[in-house]
Design brief:
The protein is an alpha/beta fold and 213 residues long. The chain is 39% helix and 16% strand. It contains eight helices and nine strands. α1 crosses α7 (182-193) and α4 packs parallel to α5 (124-137). The protein is globular, with a radius of gyration of 16 Å.
Length: 213
Amino acid sequence: MHLTPSHILLAGATGLTGELLLDRLLNEPTITRVLAPSRKPLAAHPRLENPVGDPVVFLPQLSGRVDVAFCCLGTTIKQAGSEAAFRAVDHDMVVAFAKRAREMGARHLVVVSAIGAAPKSSVFYNRVKGEMEQSLRAQNWPQLTIARPSLLLGDRIEPRLAEQIAGPLSKLIPGKYHGIEACQLARALWRLALEEQDGVRVIESDELRKLGK
């Protein structure tokens, strides 16, 4: 079954995937409003509402109808500065955003996680992503879609050295570990938002690439 959501809540609109997804949403004729809070101002658009500032301040103030919420929040330990700061974004902020989206009436949450996410992983990054997924499951969403992309490929405003080195190599790896273009991921997220399937659905990177073609 397919839905036609018209009121969207988006977190992470200044990131690689979020920026591409925002552009797609604003070009969808069925979308009435995109509410996209961010720390930095976004380019103005008639259907975009962009509260700017500290999430701790603006999250409780968000209001209005929400059909589907997208969460594209994510950082790296290097960018965050420490493991604790990384967890504050990739777990705590994601969970807080999802909670507020649910309070606003959203039935479907589409969240970007990562390949290998597992709460008991020995890899800190994967463990935090897995704990984030676990926390979202505990919120009992009517519909929760978890996207687990492999290495994201695309031009970032602030390039990540690891991605620059591993990107070309990831294109040679078969299956779900093959790198995925951020534009493919953005297309896949939108298509997943149009599907109504109660419960939790986990989409691995190889399936995301197919959906994003």
